[in-house]
What we know:
globular, Aminopeptidase, alpha/beta
Amino acid sequence: MDAYRLLGFTWLFAFAAALFCSFKDIQRGYKLRSVVLDAGHGGKDPGTHGKKTKEKDVTLSVILKLGKLLKAKYPEMKIYYTRKDDNFVELFERADIANRNNADLFISIHCNSGPSHVQGSETYAMGLHTSEGNLKVAKRENAVILKEENYLKKYDGFDPNSPLAHIFFANIQNAYLDQSLSFAQKVEQQFENLAGKQSRGVKQAGFLVLWKTAMPSVLIELGYLTHGKEEKVLGSEEGQEQAAKAILKAIGKFKEELE
């Protein structure tokens, strides 16, 4: 019996080693061929808002500008959108769009809200809530599922009103966490360098929109619409173009690093 067990463990070890080598080969040959661009909120879900702007409008404008810039710089790259107009797309469908198209990178763009003195960008990867602030952002963005039918069934009983649900959910491991964090860091660096924004750093939290994406994925909070000056910038064509160019630059650096 012991001999058979030893033979089984030997075979399993050999299989695991071969699988690891194959994974390393895949990693060496990895190409950034396709990107999914996700404009947060939309339709009946306006997201957060400032005095004059709505999150759903700002995110869509930045996404469309980013897509245009990407196509011009990388004509061979496939670009998919979760929405290209003002319509409501359920969170699980956004991830499904990325998975169905075997995308190499998923970028979800949002705007933040908070006390009127708070400003700056934040880029999130899927992971543990390391602060109460991160949890609040995740709860606000995840609350959109309350506008969906049968959300408890679609999201395995997840209740966006329960802090315990978010803590449990955030413990789900992301196989692409390292790459997601690497890209998130590049986004925040470019916001500071190109867009002249105040960066609030790279963070982790349990966002439903990132939960089932089978590729490196980030959620970008462009800034606070509740901050007067930042709302003015994010609501302008120039400010939106600057944000799109910063994300484009981050994608380029991420592409170089991978390839």
